[in-house]
Amino acid sequence: MRYLHEDELKIATRFLFLSMAMVVIKQDIAHFQNGKFKINEPYLELLEKMASLARNERRRLRKVMEDRKIQVVRLNKNDSFSSFLFLCQGREEKRNYFNPVIRKEVEEIIRNLMKKALQPSQASAAAKT
Question: At 63, is the pLDDT very low, low, confident or very high (cuts 50, 70, 90)?
């Protein structure tokens, strides 16, 4: 049975998976900084821009969650599944996610962040015209 409204669950899951994507991006930045790549700067700039976009989005989501009293709590994790508890205004819902599905969700968020980071900014596009 579903106890949270669809929009509440959507906000909470986006926050959850975006937070996971931020961890991956942070780890990737460390790999590039410590790696033996010939030219690191373009990759690091892209990852830093993605991290900035993710931080801004997560900040907005956290504010919405705070206003609507939504919380996400990790319950447990094993080789196959991760369990989370979603709380909202006294209602709660436990959800189990298959870890490969989590990976796909996080990958999709990273792809979207990459697309946004690679788009020319409105300021530079306006300057060119």
Answer: very high
